[in-house]
Design a protein that fits this description.
single chain, 321 residues, mainly alpha, two-stranded antiparallel sheet, globular
Length: 321
């Protein structure tokens, strides 16, 4: 069976949340508290006979525990020293073997983070600079970007004023699109423009809701796009100095192959979200649930061993249907 066949099968099982998932707990089920015996007051002689011996045993236990603690501290320091040598900055092993510990209290503890190549650092820095730019409706550059999006979405129609009821047709919530960006920033508008330019057929199918049986109360296209941008930023841990989530670390590998990996991943996520929407027969009030399912599926696909670029993701094929 080829890897392409495996990817197609994974995609069909995941869309709609019908894949078989299993949640394994890491609790300490095998441990239990020792039962305390019931001592009678009448057994006074036995208690007195062993009192001195018990005190001696207590002191011996304390000493043993003390040395065990010191020994464990030495082992921990030695392990950290060895890890710094093997997985330190510049180490080839540190780049190709990002190791994580098991899950404890529901939080994955990261043992080692791979060092970044100069190209990864440069592209990550540029992407994070894009994230810092808020949308500003008073800037001509941002106004022009909105106009460009309209022309790409409706090439044969007249451009409306920046405040108009016509913007609602694209899926903005009000007459002024600038009020919908909030935490999405200018990059979310750039993502929509990239989608319209790079994958115009897919963009228009989603914009005009041409696939499947649609709900009476559909998700608003443009606002959904802003939410997808924000979801990806969180999932990939891009607002921290150096991504430490498993999805974020894997994304850095994709970023090294493609400087527009974030924008391409956005297009995949948008198409994936619509497929989840149709599979679940969702309506407007279920949008957040669909977005969570989309994130979960995307994280699963990023973990596949044979994914070395965005185009290797099983869901990437959705963009060419």
């Amino acid at each position: 069976m080829t890897s392409r066949t495996l990817r197609r099968r994974l995609h069909h099982e995941d869309v709609g949340g019908r894949g078989n998932e299993r949640l394994e707990s890491s609790g300490y089920d095998g441990l239990s508290e020792p039962l305390l015996a019931n001592y009678q007051d009448g057994d006074q002689s036995r208690s007195e006979g062993h009192r001195a011996e018990d005190l001696w045993d207590d002191e011996e236990k304390k000493a043993r525990l003390h040395w065990m603690f010191i020994f464990s501290q030495l082992i921990t320091q030695w392990a950290q020293w060895l890890a710094n040598i093997v997985f330190g900055s510049g180490s080839l092993i540190g780049r190709i073997l990002p190791l994580t510990s098991g899950t404890q209290n529901g939080i994955s503890q990261k043992l080692f983070l791979p060092s970044l190549t100069p190209l990864q650092e440069e592209r990550l820095r540029y992407l994070q600079q894009r994230l810092e730019v808020p949308f500003d409706g008073s800037q001509v550059e941002h106004q022009d970007a909105l106009k460009q999006l309209w022309r790409l979405a409706y090439p044969g129609r007249e451009l409306p004023p920046l405040k108009s009821e016509l913007w609602k047709e694209m899926g903005w919530q009000g007459t002024d699109p600038s009020t919908d960006f909030r935490g999405g920033g200018f990059i979310s508008l750039e993502n929509l423009i990239f989608f319209a330019k790079k994958y115009p057929d897919s963009f228009h199918r989603l914009l005009h809701k041409q696939d499947g049986t649609r709900a009476e109360w559909e998700y608003p296209f443009a606002v959904a796009g802003i939410n997808i941008s924000f979801m990806l930023i969180q999932m990939l841990d891009l607002q921290s100095g150096k991504p430490s989530s498993s999805a974020g670390i894997r994304f850095l590998e994709l970023l090294e192959k493609d400087e527009m990996a974030f924008d391409n991943l956005y297009c995949v996520a948008f198409r994936m979200m619509d497929a989840q929407w149709l599979a679940k027969r969702a309506s407007y009030m279920e949008f957040n649930d669909v977005l969570k399912s989309t994130r979960a599926q995307l994280e699963r696909e990023l973990k596949l061993e044979d994914v070395s670029c965005v185009q290797d993701l099983p869901a990437y094929n959705l963009l060419h249907r």
